[in-house]
Amino acid sequence: MSATAGPLAVASGEPGPMVRLIGISKSFGGVTVLDGVDLSVAAGTVTCVVGPSGSGKSTLLRCVNRLERPDSGAILVDGRPVGLERRGDRVVEASPRVLARHRTSVGMVFQALNLFPHLTVLQNIVESPVAVQRVRRDEARARARELLDRVGLAHKERAYPRELSGGEQQRVAIARALAVRPKVMLFDEPTSALDPELIGEVLTVVRDLAAGGMTMLIVTHELRFAAEVADEIVFMDQGRIVEQGPPAAMLGRPRHERTARFFATIQ
Ligand code: ADP
Ligand code: MG
């Protein structure tokens, strides 16, 4: 294969990766947090990102839906640059309206439980499709009920977040993220704020999404779960991808000493 096969394949109209990060760098106050990260996630696949605290995992995810703006590099979701728009012959920062639309292609579930506390479960899920996508409220409600059924919480639609367990709140958060029909789902340690007995119910939902072919980028410390659902495991340290590969290779025989040492600390 020639060295240019990749770019040419894209140019010829073949589908490229669903998410593509090209040379992403980001500093905070002179400290480099992401240092030229390149990463592709193929459509319908799951990539799990692991690495020590402070290695830049959350910042990386936040760049994908433009909660952080990279200092350099580009991010494409389904071939389209996130957070940028063309104005005449210039490429400029996207307007809030365009950015809101871009974000509907990327669903995100955070570590902290962050449902709207003053809205019911159903209202939490209906909010975005109605406000951002102008979906009719009755249609959004019907879809929200389907999603609640899928995460096993059909009976909780009238509850308020404070009346739910942490695991239930995260399952509602997943339903809320799915409500805008995103092309890719991002998870930032979705189980790390949960009591151990509640972790399983959230991972089950993520597992079902993977089985349904959802493209996902998941930051997690649950190595056994990552080994099971991931097509690719990415190990990050100090703002860089140290190595990546299929679970068996990464967990079985990591090439780098740093990777092996990290796996040893959390297994
Ligand atoms: P991880 O998720 O791997 O633990 P993060 O992406 O949260 O890592 O953070 C990487 C580094 O960037 C940390 O040192 C963190 O303190 C720093 N950082 C993250 N966000 C900000 C911010 N908004 N302002 C300043 N520093 C930040
Ligand atoms: Mg983090």
TrEMBL record:
SUPFAM superfamilies attached to this UniProt entry: P-loop containing nucleoside triphosphate hydrolases (SSF52540)
Transmembrane segments annotated in the record for this chain: none
Ranges of residues in domain ABC transporter: 19-263
GO cellular component: plasma membrane
Coiled-coil stretches noted in the UniProt entry, renumbered to this chain: none
An annotated Gene Ontology molecular function: ABC-type amino acid transporter activity
The keyword Nucleotide-binding belongs to this UniProt entry's keyword annotation: yes
UniProt main location, coarse: membrane
Origin superkingdom: Bacteria
Cellular location(s): Cell membrane
Alphabetic keyword roster: Amino-acid transport, ATP-binding, Cell membrane, Membrane, Nucleotide-binding, Transport
InterPro entries in the record: AAA+_ATPase (IPR003593), ABC_ATPase_HisP-typ (IPR030679), ABC_transporter-like_ATP-bd (IPR003439), ABC_transporter-like_CS (IPR017871), MetN_ABC_transporter-like (IPR050086), P-loop_NTPase (IPR027417)
PROSITE patterns according to UniProt: ABC_TRANSPORTER_1, ABC_TRANSPORTER_2
Membrane topology: Peripheral membrane protein
Family: Belongs to the ABC transporter superfamily.
Name by which UniProt lists this protein: Polar amino acid transport system ATP-binding protein
Organism phylogeny: Bacteria, Bacillati, Actinomycetota, Actinomycetes, Micromonosporales
